[in-house]
Amino acid sequence: MAMSLKSINNLVEELLQSRQNCNKIVDLIPLINFEENEEVLNVILDGVGTYFCNAICNNELTKQKGVSKEMSEYQEWINIRYNECLAKIVLLLDHDSDILKEKCIVTVLRFMESKIGVALQKDNVSFPETELESLICAFIINDTSNHMQDVCTNIWKLDDVRYFALKCITKCSAECLSKIELKSMMLQNIFTLLNSISESMPAVMDETNLHTLANNGVERIFPAVNKDPVVTEKYQDSSIPFPKALDLKEQRKIFGNAWLEFLNYDLDSHLFKSVLVILQKCVIPNFASPCILADFLTRSFNKGGGIALLSLHSLFILMNEHNLEYPDFYTHLYSMVHPRVFDAKYQPRFFFLLDVFLSSTHLPAYLVAAFAKRLSRLTLVAPTCAQELLVNFIQTLIDRHPSIKILINQNTKALQKKALAGDPYLEAEVDPAKCKAMESFLWELTALSKHCSSSVSAAIKNIDKGPKQDITDLLENTYEEMFDTLCEKEIVDAPMNYRAPKTLFGGFDDAVMELWSV
């Protein structure tokens, strides 16, 4: 029979009154289950949380020498009850209520904070990794909501918790993946954990304003938490309990190890892409040695398709900022300038990155000319909404690299006739250095100079005057936008015929005249 809320409140009060009522905990622990309602569980969690925090602070969970037999048996008994309670609380992290799950996390953090407070009074300080491993295993196994991800992000703001969590993730991941078959969901949860930690990594470690569990950490990230009746000594002296945890180099080293272990798993295509999307923003800046990602990125780049496209930016950052040597980068990039890019989900991202990669004025003229010619050839098969982008891209390259103006200055009638006989440009050549782009010219733009779209034809006519529009404004251009622009345009003289008539009736097969014929 389920106990009433009033009965549970009385049970909690009796438990907290005296150690003589410690057996009441045996009645409360089994009630921590999914069958009880949320209000009852909140009361129980508050009660057992306060009880065990008091027990920890009074050294009742620490086995001591020279104590009586009764005390030794009591310590052994309460340790068993504590482990039972911890296991029950962690299981509740699969509950439907986000508020209750947050309460469970706060309760476990209170246990950890109390243990650190007691350990700080001793010479041998150790971090309570058992509780942290229990939390991380629960995060990996259970599906997490957006609210819980926000809660986790707050937890990782604590420098010591973040450091030891990174150490635990590798161990917990291996254990969970070896036992349970739902590997795709767990890999997604591991990625979510690592991503939230990545967002919480500091740029610098300020020792004058430490955010640690030892320094009132739970109260900082969860201000609504009530203080326990027994307040232990917190970290307030000049000594640092976990020096490695507060060393940014050490944090980045262990951060890199955790990510590399995760990247060694067999990730599905969706998760692979999710990793690549955040890599350059959140992961690479927090690596102690970012170049160790080179193998993963080159392997991704060689896969081709969307995965190769997403790996471009991170690979370029390693080349540009960390002196990674990858001589075939522009050759692979050149091969990606293909008509199929217009069918890709990441088309805007590709052209944005292509502009970044070709922005250096130190690139050789033959290389830039090869890309300009390739883009020019694409204008013949590209959708109308993308043609304006391509023309503006070519204008930008010519404006940025004056040495390739020869591609438009050579556009004479004599060369046009020669082009009809055969363009020297080798479209099938994969090496931009051998495609003979500098021997050709952009005749494709001449073919589009009378395009039905006024924006495309106008851009081609002003090809030698530099781009009038920034490329980033055209990346998301669609047919819908083109249609809306044309509808908003005011037309003064609307043409009603493609040839001007000379008489009211008659001329060029006038159907009206046929009505008068016998």
Describe what you observe in this structure.
By secondary structure, the protein is mainly alpha-helical. The chain has 24 helices and no strands. It has two domains: 255 residues, no CATH class; 131 residues, no CATH class. Helix 9 packs parallel to helix 12. The radius of gyration is 34 Å and the shape is elongated. About 2% of the residues have low confidence.
Gap between N and C termini: 104 Å
Question: How many alpha or pi helices?
Answer: 24
Give the proportion of residues in helices.
Answer: 55-70%
Number of domains: 2
Low-pLDDT residue spans: 228-238
Radius of gyration: 34 Å
Instruction: Let me know the largest β-sheet.
Output: none
How do the SSEs run, as a string of H and E?
HHHHHHHHHHHHHHHHHHHHHHHH
What does the average pLDDT come to? 82
Give the number of DSSP strands: 0
Q: What best-fitting shape do the alpha-carbon axes yield?
A: elongated
Q: What percentage of the residues does DSSP assign to strands (E)? A: under 5%
Find the structural class using helix and strand composition.
Answer: mainly alpha
